[in-house]
Structure formats: structure tokens, C-alpha cells
Write a structure and sequence with these properties.
Length: 238
């Protein structure tokens, strides 16, 4: 055994999607059957885990307060989590159609969450590649260059979270805010009064962060620049 090399640890994934890829994914999501397109868009907007978004019940959502409270029983770290819903998120939920009970994104049976992610991702990648190729062809014509074949670097739905948090830091939000946005906690399990406090800790900053991310995403999609994407933390605290 002394001559056997120890197994190497799992390599951390570092795939961050480019602005062009984000726009292509957003537009390609509209080619998917419902509710899979809405799933992709809500993943992009909220930056929450795939299982949490796919299994989202209407009971966790407050339309009046524009907030989504993820039950700790569904969260990976077992912490209840408040997700402020930006205008872009609210518009997506309005398009789905608000209800009082049941699942937001049900499967064809209506009783289980949307699934079959492998086939969905295959169809999504095909549509994304077609969009990127069309854009490259149009740019080649405009520049009077020869067209070239576009390739899509492999990516996973989870990379949307990393891309969003990376952009949040570029927009001026510190790591402790981005960690709270995606429900990452430091210092072990929180319970009792501390757990309740942690639920609301950084809430105003999360509102500002997800609002800024939604505006940035919308700016990429529409091509209309936002006046200023940089958020000053003192302003974010109100």
C-alpha cells in the first residue's frame, strides 16, 4: 500500500458561462416544452439549486412580499432559506400562472416535479449551439470574413449558479453576500433564535444582489445597457 499513490481529490469545477452563452441559453429555453423552459429561466434568475427550483411548491412563494422561502427539508444544507424574487422572477412566475397549491413546475402527471433533465439538457444544448452558430455567421458576414464552425464547451445547469455568483462579485457584492444568496453558511448548524436570525441576516443585501443580477441578465438579453451595474453596499443596506 505504501507504493500506491493516494487518490486525488475531486477537481473543483470552474466553468463560467460567457455573456453570449447566457443569452443563447435564455433564448434557447423558449424552444423547450413547458415547464422545462421556465425551469431553466428560473435557475438563471434565482441562482438556486436545480432540485430546489424543480420541486418548488406554490406554498413556499409569497406573491405580496415577492419572496420564496425554501423549506429546510428541501435544502441541501437543511437550512431554511429566503430568496427575494426580482421583477424578472416575478414576471416568470406570472407567466406560469400563480396558484395556491401544488407544484410550480410539475411533470406531466401533475403530481411530481419536472424531471428528465438529461433529455432536456440535450435539447437545450442543440438549440444553444444553433443560436451561437447563427450569431457567428452574422458577425462573419458583417466583417466580410469566412464563416467558422462554432463549438459549445461542455457545461452543466449547476454552472448557472457559479456564473451568477461570479457576476455578483463583479457587480460589487462581497463573497459573504453571494454565499447567502445561494444558501451557503459558515460556522456549522444554526438552530433556535440564531437560526431565525440567520434566516433574515443579509436579507436586504440579497434583495439588492438578486435585483442587480436580474437587471444585468435582462440587459444582456435585450442589449440595452443598465445605467450602472455597480452597487454600493451602503445604498444596498438602505
Amino acid at each position: 500500500m505504501s507504493k500506491i499513490d493516494p487518490p486525488s481529490g475531486a477537481k473543483a469545477r470552474k466553468r463560467v458561462l460567457t455573456p453570449d452563452e447566457l443569452v443563447a441559453i435564455w433564448n434557447a429555453s423558449f424552444t423547450l416544452d413547458d415547464p422545462r423552459g421556465a425551469l431553466v429561466r428560473l435557475l438563471m434568475i434565482t441562482l438556486q439549486r436545480r432540485s430546489e427550483v424543480a420541486g418548488m411548491p406554490w406554498a413556499e412563494l409569497s406573491k405580496d412580499r415577492a419572496v420564496w422561502r425554501i423549506d429546510g427539508e428541501r435544502a441541501k444544507n437543511e437550512h431554511d432559506h429566503l430568496v427575494p424574487l426580482s421583477q424578472l422572477a416575478m414576471a416568470e412566475l406570472e407567466a406560469v400562472g400563480w396558484k395556491r397549491r401544488g407544484l410550480v413546475l410539475p411533470s406531466s402527471t401533475g403530481k411530481t416535479p419536472v424531471s428528465n433533465f438529461s433529455d432536456m439538457k440535450t435539447a437545450l444544448d442543440k438549440a444553444v449551439l444553433a443560436i451561437l452558430q447563427k450569431k457567428a455567421d452574422e458577425e462573419a458576414v458583417a466583417r466580410e470574413e469566412d464563416p467558422h464552425v462554432v463549438t459549445l464547451t461542455p457545461w452543466r445547469l449547476h454552472d448557472l449558479r457559479r456564473t451568477g455568483t461570479t457576476n455578483l462579485q463583479a457587480l460589487g457584492f462581497p463573497i459573504e453576500v453571494t454565499e447567502r444568496v445561494i444558501n451557503h453558511h459558515q460556522g456549522g448548524e444554526a438552530s433556535g433564535i440564531r437560526g431565525i436570525y440567520n434566516l433574515y441576516e443579509y436579507y436586504d443585501e440579497k434583495v439588492a444582489a438578486l435585483g442587480a443580477w436580474a437587471k444585468h441578465l435582462q440587459s444582456l438579453i435585450t442589449g440595452v445597457p443598465v445605467a450602472s451595474n455597480v452597487v454600493h453596499l451602503a445604498d444596498a443596506r438602505g
